[in-house]
Write a structure and sequence with these properties.
CATH class of the domain at 138-249: Alpha Beta
CATH architecture of the domain at 138-249: 2-Layer Sandwich
Distance between the termini: 17 Å
Strand content: 15-25%
CATH superfamily of the domain at 138-249: Bira Bifunctional Protein, Domain 2
Number of strands: 11
Mean pLDDT: 88
Largest sheet: 8 strands, mixed
Strand order of the largest sheet: 1-5-6-11-10-9-7-8
Oligomer: single chain
Amino acid sequence: MDFEKNNQQLLEKKRKEMEFLHHFHLLGYDLLDLSILEQFEWDRLSEDDLKMMKHRYTWQSNQSLLSLRSDWTDAIVRYRQKYKLKTDKIAYSGPVFPVDKEKMQFGMEVFTQDISIQIITMKDLLHYIRDHLNISLTVAVISHYSLLKKLLSTEERRDPEIMMYLSERNLDHLTKRLGASHPAVLLMTQPVPNQLAYAKQHFPDLKKPVEEIQHWQSELENNQIPVVYCDLFSSPNQSYYKGIFLQFYTKQSVEPIVTGGQYSSPTKAFGMAINLSSLPLTAGL
């Protein structure tokens, strides 16, 4: 092992973590550090908890279910509710352990349904990435949790085959399963640049989420994101997202550099996280 190189990488990683926390503390965010070990009681697991368990490292100890933290937002919401934490904005840093690998994240959460404040916090994080990490985010993908809920019935959303065809944008197989007149099929037959306007014009139930997408799209374009892509058939992995869902990429990245969106806590809230393992300068951290 090249210890000198390893030493410099470790010091740089810790410096970036301290810089992030200090920066957001000065912006008025409260800082939170939680244990990576979470404890659940079998008889108190919610439906969302049960859905998320397949994405966690878990084991049983007596009557408790133990898990490594797989997601910061979920852990913060649970902690905030348990201890009735009185704070409007939180910044954090630390690892998460989804089933496939360990990831390091920097992130923030804001507990308000005021969209203008949510957008300000989004800009706080995007400006930090640009000015302090020297990363140029070139593509943003916007989706909205409620779109699929309005386009598909509950039974259709629970059908793994239908959801697979949607994720693959497999129009032929989706048409065979749902029929040519199904709203999801009609929307997918439209050219991608026209889908947003088509949804707003032909499906009244989609007007509100489409207008929300357009509002966030405008904010991102004003924030110098060159390409803003609206994906009307995307569904976030985490079930707690209830509104706008965002993903950001660089020219070189295959996985998103930043993810986040609106969720229920149980009131409306918003959060975003930098996935350091996806950054082009990860080796320097």
